[in-house]
Amino acid sequence: MDTASMYEHALRTNMRFASQRGMLNLEQLWDVPLRSRDEFDLDAIAKSANRIRKEVGEESFVAARKTANQKDSEIRLELVKHVIAVKLEEEAQRAAVADRVKEKEKLTAILEKKQDAALEDLDEEAIKARIAELNA
Fold it and tell me: Are 15 and 76 within 8 A, CB to CB?
């Protein structure tokens, strides 16, 4: 089942996700942090969904079809895993942006030092000429 179909199924069936703070709907799931100190996070929700999937997912060697509970528990886990994957990707992108900003700040500071050093290397006549240009 593709992601769009899973989302549609979850929304149409009012799927809920067990958490430390009660049942959450799909929209609320996106507001849950990846990590936390009080176990109200996506990892805990995914572990709970996986535990439920294992409980209802007992395989039948006779029945060819999955029950509705098995299907729902698998979709629930896949949706939590999808939210986690998206949030991890966004976290990685934010870290990459922060790294680029930090590197740019370092390079700017180094450039300023080199420019200051270049000005300090000017002889007295060049400094006087530059001051005269700036005063004009």
Answer: yes
CA 39 to chain centre: 18
Burial status of residue 10 (CB atoms within 10 A of its CB: 0-12, 13-18, 19 or more): buried
Which pTM does this prediction carry?
0.76
Q: How confident is the model at residue 48 (pLDDT cuts 50, 70, 90)?
A: very high
In 3-state terms, what secondary structure has residue 17? strand
Going by pLDDT thresholds of 50, 70 and 90, the confidence category of residue 30 is very high
Whether the Cβ atoms of residue 49 and residue 80 lie closer than 8 Å to each other: yes
Q: What does the alpha-carbon distance between residue 16 and residue 25 come to, in Å, rounded to a whole number?
A: 5
CA torsion 7-10-13-18 (nearest 10°) is -170
Number of Cβ within a 10 Å radius of residue 73: 21
